Amino acid sequence: MKILVLNGPNLNMLGIREPDIYGKNTYKDLLAYIKEHCDSKGVEVSFYQSNHEGDLVDAIQNAYFNKIDGIVINPGAYTHTSVALLDAVKAVSIPTVEVHISAVDEREEFRKISYIRKACVATVSGEGFASYTHGVDILIEGKK
């Protein structure tokens, strides 16, 4: 099984950005955590992060052509604004899990809106880095 983990704007700033919300671990720590989990499950994982919406759309479309079996995506702020990401996930029909490190539904009112959620098989929020591995496990279970 091949999974793509996509991260949107500001996720590269983990450990620096609002550590009281996102923790003190870095983006590099996040990738190592996910890779270790995927390795233990026999899953091939690749990563992509961008602060640019169009780059994320391109990555979703490329996942189709690269025969990716599932996507775990933390769209960051684009969760609440991007119809383009929603349309890209719908276009490729790859099972996708939306994830968030923080409990977005318990934060500011605008964070309760997710456009991409409509195209996702599940959403995992508020579990810290474990939101990602939980998302991976959902994709693995769905492939069985």
Structural class: alpha/beta
Low-confidence stretches: none
Largest sheet: 5 strands, parallel
Largest sheet strand order: 2-1-3-4-5
Beta-strand proportion = 15-25%
Shape: globular
* Integer-rounded radius of gyration: 14 Å
DSSP helix count?
5
Helix percentage range:
25-40%
| Beta-strand segment tally | 5
Q: What order do the helices and strands follow?
A: EHHEHEHEEH
Q: Return the average pLDDT rounded to an integer.
A: 95
Could you give the distance between the termini?
Answer: 11 Å
Structure at a glance:
The protein is of the alpha/beta class and about 140 residues long. About 40% of the residues lie in helices and about 20% in strands.
Write out key terms for the chains shown.
about 140 residues, alpha/beta, 5-stranded parallel sheet, 5 helices, 5 strands, about 40% helix, globular
Question: What this model shows, in words?
Answer:
- The structure is a single chain.
- This protein has five helices and five strands.
- With 144 residues, the protein is of the alpha/beta class.
- The protein has a five-stranded parallel β-sheet with strand order 2-1-3-4-5, with helices on both faces.
- Helix 2 (27-41) packs parallel to helix 5 (130-143) and helix 3 packs parallel to helix 4 (83-92).
- It is globular.
- It starts with a strand and ends with a helix.
- The mean pLDDT is 95.
